[in-house]
Amino acid sequence: MTEQRHRVFSGARPTGRQHLGNYLGAIRNYVALQDDYDCIYCVVDLHALTTLSDTDKLRTWTYEMTLDWLAAGIDPDRGTILFVQSHVPQVVELHLLLSMVTPLGWLTRLPTFKEKVRQQPDNVNYGLVGYPVLMAADITLYKADTVPVGVDQAPHLEFTREIVRRFNRLFGDVLVEPQAKYTEFTKVLGIDGKQKMSKSLNNHIEIASPPEEIQGRVMQMMTDPARRYRSDPGHPEVCNVYSLHKFFSADEVGQIEHDCRNAGIGCVQCKRKLAQNIADYFAPFRERRAEWDAHPDDVWDVLADGARRASAIAEETITAVKDAIGLPERR
Ligand code: ADP
Fold it and tell me: Does the Cβ of 25 fall within 6 Å of ligand 1?
């Protein structure tokens, strides 16, 4: 008998074309998890509404992000469910029901909420404070028992677990309490070499970029500030170009480190090599992306099929939840 596989849920807001940070920090892990888990990946467009002002971009950005995910190897043919959060409206229902068992103090005390209040003092909306409840609804609606998290996101998942425990104490053992699956935390810095790579800071490199664009961005990257002249020895441990080489130039990284420390290679040459290796790494990805992009209907069909499969699970959960609470049944 084959053992039942554990079920993973993870979501990301539709931010359009994905960058190296998204790829190294999330997507490649999503792809790998498919080997051992039943995976549900969600474009969380409703979550985007809590902070996003340009809602006119949601459709395009959902499409672009889905293209990147599919081309990177997220594969519905392997059983993975890939869908858009708002296409399965039961999540909104569950969000409301869970909000009834969530003390407001739990939400307003969260450091992430306080940070958002600082970031957008003029838009502290009801949805913003309820963000973690919506996240709990996402995870529990699909009965996921495993959620991949970096150590930095662990408190969020702990919050979901607390809501689940509280709900189950009140109404019986209905919701699955998810476990964290700690993933290696990779923080990719932007081309400024200082801040986290992020589209909003415009310090990013898109994985779908053609080679000449990758080269253009890589050539702008900050390197070791102490290395002023070509003849100065470099310090790879403080250089962001080197940290990307570690991933994209695995075969030659030892040589690059040696040459940098001994001023055997200049920063310009070192960056050219990196740009080439990034472009080569993503060459098959760019081809698969172009194939998908030639048939946009197929991309939307994948999402529609994902929503159908996700709905079936959602319907089971929401029925069980309403029944446990004691809401009157509809005849
Ligand atoms: P979200 O707010 O939904 O996390 P982001 O676009 O910020 O949306 O990130 C999507 C995923 O990519 C997240 O899992 C995040 O950790 C990862 N990610 C984003 N930027 C970086 C980065 N610079 N380094 C590592 N991982 C990143």
Answer: yes
Residue 197 lies in a domain: no
Residues 12 and 125 in one domain: yes
Digit-coded pLDDT (tens) for 192-251: 999 999 998 999 999 999 999 999 999 999 998 888 888 999 999 999 999 999 999 999
Q: Which atom of ligand 1 is nearest to the CA of 11?
A: 3
Whether residue 49 contacts residue 17, with contact meaning beta carbons closer than 8 Å, is answered with no
| CATH number of residue 302's parent domain | 3.40.50.620
Residues 51 and 169 grouped into a single domain: yes
Domain count, the chain: 2
Q: Is the CB of 188 under 6 A from ligand 1?
A: yes
Is the domain of 74 the same as that of 154? yes
- What's the pLDDT tens digit per position in 34-81? 999 999 999 999 999 887 667 889 999 999 999 999 999 999 999 999
Q: Which residue type, as a one-letter code, is found at position 290?
A: A
Tell me, yes or no, whether 290 lies in a domain.
no
134 lines ligand 1 (CB under 6 A): no
Residue to substitute in 22, 188, 192, 201 for testing ligand 1 pocket (most ligand atoms within 8 angstroms of CB): 22
* Alpha helices (H) along the chain: 20-22, 28-33, 45-48, 58-72, 90-99, 104-108, 111-119, 126-129, 131-141, 154-171, 211-219, 240-248, 253-261, 267-281, 283-293, 296-325
Distance from the CA of 314 to the center of ligand 1, in angstroms? 26
Residue nearest to atom 14 of ligand 1 (CA): 26
| Residue 15, SS3 per DSSP | coil
Domain span including residue 179: 7-188+296-325
Q: For residue 275, how far is its CA from the centre of ligand 1 (angstroms)?
A: 22
**What is the whole-number distance in angstroms between the Cα of residue 237 and the centre of ligand 1?**
23
**Backbone phi, psi, residue 83, to 5°:** -155, 175
| Residue 244 CB less than 6 A away from ligand 1 | no
